[in-house]
Amino acid sequence: MKKVLAINSSIRKNNTFNLLKKIEKKLNEKDIMVDFINLKDYNIKECVGCELCITKDICNLNDDMDILMNKLKNYDGIIISTPVYMSNLSGKLKVFLDRTCRWFHRPELTGCPILLVSTTAGSGLKDTFLTLEKIMYQWGAFPVGKIGRSLGNLNEDVKDKDIDNFVMHLYMDKCKFKPNLNQLINFQVQKVLAVKILTFDRKYWEDKDWISKDYFFNAKIPIVSKIISRSFYKMLYKKVNPVNNNF
Predict the structure, then answer these.
(1) Given 172, 192, 219, which residue is the final one in a domain?
(2) 49 and 92 belong to one structural domain
(3) Within this chain, do residues 90 and 194 fall inside the same structural domain, yes or no?
(4) Residue 245 counted as domain residue
(5) Is-above-0.70 flag for pTM?
(6) Using alpha carbons only, what angle is made at residue 115 by residues 112 and 118, rounded to the nearest 5 degrees?
(7) Residue 88, class by beta-carbon neighbours within 10 Å (0-12 exposed, 13-18 middle, 19+ buried)?
(8) What percent of the chain has a predicted confidence (pLDDT) above 70?
(9) Which of 24, 28, 33, 115 is an S-S bond match for 145, by CB 3.0 to 4.6 Å?
(10) What are the NADPH-dependent FMN reductase-like domain coordinates in residue numbering (predicted)?
(11) Does one domain contain both 207 and 156?
(12) Same domain, 157 and 197
């Protein structure tokens, strides 16, 4: 049985949480177990920008972030949900995601399928999903579904077609995954930073055997996309000056 973690970032257990419960019911029908975490129940302090998590893999903020980040690594898939606030993420989710910035440098959720969920009283779903997609690429995970609801369809049931792609990727062999060009280019950006900026990152990437790869794992990459992403790496590599440090 596959295990999925649903993250509720709303302060209230209302529209967004109710949509998550509908998704849980539909996933349960497919023998997929869903656990919940409500971010409001955890102590998550705002990032202070000290960059210690990036340079030394430590954080001096005493809160629950390590608990949460370790928890995410134990699931086959993740559902990330948010109400739309000011045409974007909830503040609680933004603070949580800010604190995962080490995963941009040293991704730990590579190949994890993500289902994005959001509710709004009006507009903002498109911008909210776009923001989340970019962050998931930086995690090394891949967003493979979106479920958005507004006042017009808030009470609509979750259908098989809403979750089919997410479910397929939960069971799919990673070698069959086809990363899009944005994901491939983001990988190359992260690789250049690892190779030329922080030796701490470089060792991590070398240990993972990613330096010589086109993506985090063997996947179905069209030849044109491969050529474009490799060219982007070469161009960026020339432009970024190496930093001599012992981090």
Answers:
(1) 172
(2) yes
(3) no
(4) no
(5) yes
(6) 145
(7) middle
(8) 98
(9) 115
(10) 3-147
(11) no
(12) no
**Cβ atoms 13, 42 nearer than 8 A:** no
Neighbours of 46 (CB within 10 A): 12
Do residues 78 and 163 make contact, with C-beta atoms less than 8 angstroms apart? no
Best CA proximity match to 165, nearest among 216, 113, 221, 210? 113
What's residue 42's pLDDT? 96
Examine the pLDDT at 151 and tell me if it is beyond 90: no
Pair (140, 226) in one structural domain: no
Domain of 136 in residue numbering reads as 2-172
Residues 153 and 198 in one domain: no
Say which DSSP state 56 is in: T
Where does the pLDDT of residue 244 fall: very low under 50, low under 70, confident under 90, or very high at 90 and above? low
Structure tokens at 126: 């498109």
Strand partners, 32: 2
pLDDT tens profile 48-76: 999 999 988 899 999 999 999 999 999 99
**Average of pLDDT values for 13-42?**
96
Number of domains in the chain: 2
Of 123, 150, 172, which residue constitutes the final position of a domain?
A: 172
Distance CA 85, CA 225 (A): 35
Say whether both 78 and 156 belong to one domain: yes
Which neighbouring-strand residues pair with 188? Answer: none
Rounded CA separation 142/201 (Å): 21
